[in-house]
Amino acid sequence: MPLIRVTNLARTMRDLQERHNVWIVGTAGEAESGIYEAKLTGSIALVMGAEGDGMRRLTREHCDQLISIPMAGSVSSLNVSVATGVCLFEIVRQKLAGQ
């Protein structure tokens, strides 16, 4: 799974969508779709926001879908490394289930 670091995220996201047919999924606590309801198969780019601030507006607008991770009890959010692990696990789980 490639990890990409770029200087112009919005341009790169647009390029992934238009030239490479990649579905871009962003995480946001207020997203209407939950991670377990989202279809996360095929070519996916996962965009994680910064801890505390989340994603910038332009980055959010370039996402094809926004998802949230459901929280239980008094937990209101996860740090970005834990949230990334949860999302990557679900993406791999869905890909393996589809084989």
UniProtKB/TrEMBL annotation:
Ranges for domain tRNA/rRNA methyltransferase SpoU type come to 2-89
Q: Which domain of life is it from?
A: Bacteria
Pfam families named among the record's database cross-references? SpoU_methylase (PF00588)
**What EC number(s) does the entry state?**
2.1.1.185
What this protein is called in its record is 23S rRNA (Guanosine-2'-O-)-methyltransferase RlmB
Q: Which UniProt keywords apply?
A: Methyltransferase, Transferase
Entry's InterPro entries?
Alpha/beta_knot_MTases, rRNA_MeTrfase_TrmH, SpoU_MeTrfase, tRNA_m1G_MTases_N
Q: Name one GO molecular function term.
A: RNA binding
Q: Name one GO cellular component term.
A: cytosol
